Amino acid sequence: MRKFATLALALLLTNSSIATDQTKEDTVAWLMKQATQNPYGLQHAVEDGVLESHLTLPGGIGRAADPISKAIPLGKITAIVLTQTDKYVSFSLMCNTPCAYLLESPELKRDKFLFEIYGKFDSAYAMRLQNALLHLVKLYGGNAKAMNAPRQKEPF
User: Fold this and answer.
1) Among the listed ranges 22-36, 48-62, 76-90, 137-151, which one has the minimum average pLDDT value?
2) Residue 59 has pLDDT above 50, yes or no
3) What does the alpha-carbon distance between residue 18 and residue 65 come to, in Å, rounded to a whole number?
4) Where are the domains of the chain?
5) Nearby residues of 146 by Cβ (< 8 Å), 6 or more positions away
6) Which of 6, 28, 68, 114 has the fewest CB atoms within 10 Å, counting from its CB?
7) Is the backbone of residue 64 left (phi > 0), alpha (psi -120 to 50) or beta?
8) Following DSSP, what letter does each residue of the chain receive, concatenated?
9) Cα-based distances in Å from 67 to 9, 102, 106
10) For residue 87, how many other CB atoms are within 10 A of its CB?
11) So what's the pLDDT on residue 121?
12) Fold (CATH) for 22-57+66-145
């Protein structure tokens, strides 16, 4: 009877992990849906295994807006550092060697890429976002570690 119970539990756990594993498409869709809460000037996308961020800054009087687009290859990310405030959740995505870049100058590599989602979130939701990013990196052949940013001490 004990062997049967052990076998049944093993099958149950195996089948539940298969059913809950999300595909690349599912994971990207879920993360991008969360990012729709961002102000209209900040958008994210995943194209050919590369996470992109497009920020349009407001232009001055008589001047067009200045777009800034950056990217990072998902499979090269090795660290995902979570920072949470009452206004947003931010993830610093980093590689072992600089791998983030501006789309207009991909030859100039940078140390980190910021993936931000604006809104009020509890810590459990922020962890779900971080887990989704970790899963997406894994789906693209990477192996990232999750970290929390050190808390800033108030002077008084």
Assistant:
1) 48-62
2) yes
3) 46
4) 22-57+66-145
5) 80, 82, 130, 131, 134
6) 6
7) beta
8) -HHHHHHHHHHHHHHHHHHHPPPHHHHHHHHHHHGGGS-TTEEEEEETTEEEEEEEEPP-TT---EEEEEEEEGGGEEEEEEEE-SSEEEEEEEESS--EEETTEEEEEESEEEEEEES---HHHHHHHHHHHHHHHHHTT---EEEEPPPPPP--
9) 53, 11, 16
10) 11
11) 84
12) PH-domain like (2.30.29)
The yes-or-no verdict on residue 152 having pLDDT over 90 is: no
Report the amino acid identity of residue 33. Answer: K
User: Across the chain, what does the average pLDDT equal?
Assistant: 83
Please report, rounded to a whole number, the percentage of residues in the chain having pLDDT higher than 70. Answer: 79
- Whats the size of the chain, residue-wise? 156
Joined tokens for residue 51 = 């996470």
